User: Which sequence fits this backbone?
């Protein structure tokens, strides 16, 4: 559902050189990536964001430049950047061009695609020419996932579903917020049976991570105890915040890394054996959620 993409700045120049048509295509690519993508960065040097921003400055059409620059500002938000450090091996290298660095990422399992004009042969990563972005396999997969992930009962087990829906988010987030006012209230056994599957998934990343669960006051303490028991002896910490039921959103959400995801039936996605229930997970409007419900954080 959320993907990590590397962009060779030269690909942006290739489109800009095509004039108005190329610049409109560039805007479309950036707006598509904004829906459900993180952008790759080089470890330590963090060159990618700066060079992409500099390249965008060459756009000639003032309206397109303004809109693409606004997208870049969202990706580079200093408080919750969508640039993630996934390109290693160049930690003290300021000389190798980003074009060559991106072209060498064919075996990088932390990437889902690379927009690049001169890829090296080999590897499993999908390299995409900017001019052919819209016809790529990645563009189709990204677009479908941006609409929703839908699973029939038993279609997937917990780890596979959680990895597909939230794997990239959890790997790069410092904190995950879950809003589910119903945890433990109705069909309580279902919720408590699902919590171990979520916790096993979180612990599998073996890194520091804070989980913040927002739910109704009456069941907050029991929910916290259940999470604490499942997360014991791990690097994952849990915080449960209780609210009045009438002061919370009706639907259930998961938030991290400037994304808000509607998680349908909430924590209760799996039975005790880990088989999924009927599930729909989709991207929601992060800005609107923040505006309407910021008082709960």
Assistant:
């Amino acid at each position: 559902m959320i993907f990590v993409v590397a962009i060779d700045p030269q690909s942006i120049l290739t489109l800009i050189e095509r004039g108005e048509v190329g610049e409109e295509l560039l805007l479309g690519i950036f707006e598509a990536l904004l829906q459900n993508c993180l952008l790759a960065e080089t470890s330590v040097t963090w060159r990618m964001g700066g060079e992409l921003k500099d390249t965008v400055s060459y756009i000639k059409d003032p309206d397109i430049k303004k809109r693409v620059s606004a997208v870049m500002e969202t990706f580079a938000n200093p408080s919750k950047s969508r640039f993630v450090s996934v390109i290693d091996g160049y930690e003290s290298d300021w000389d190798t061009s980003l074009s060559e660095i991106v072209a060498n990422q064919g075996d990088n399992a932390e990437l889902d695609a690379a927009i690049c004009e001169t890829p090296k042969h080999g590897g499993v990563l999908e390299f995409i020419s900017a001019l052919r972005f819209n016809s790529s396999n990645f563009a189709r997969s990204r677009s479908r996932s941006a609409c929703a992930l839908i699973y029939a009962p038993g279609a997937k087990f917990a780890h596979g579903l959680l990895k597909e829906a939230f794997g990239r988010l959890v790997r790069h987030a410092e904190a995950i917020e879950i809003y589910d006012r119903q945890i433990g209230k109705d069909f309580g056994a279902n919720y408590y049976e699902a919590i171990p599957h979520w916790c096993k998934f979180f612990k599998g990343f073996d890194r520091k991570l804070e989980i913040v669960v927002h739910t109704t006051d009456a069941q907050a303490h029991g929910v916290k105890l259940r999470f604490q028991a499942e997360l014991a002896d791990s690097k994952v910490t849990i915080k449960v915040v209780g609210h009045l039921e009438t002061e919370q959103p009706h639907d259930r959400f998961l938030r991290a890394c400037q994304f808000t995801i509607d998680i349908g039936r909430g924590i209760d996605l799996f039975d005790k054996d880990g088989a999924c229930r009927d599930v729909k997970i989709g991207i929601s409007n992060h800005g609107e959620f923040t505006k309407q419900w910021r008082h709960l954080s």
The two ends are 24 Å apart (CA to CA). The mean pLDDT is 92. Residues 20-36 form the longest helix (17 residues).
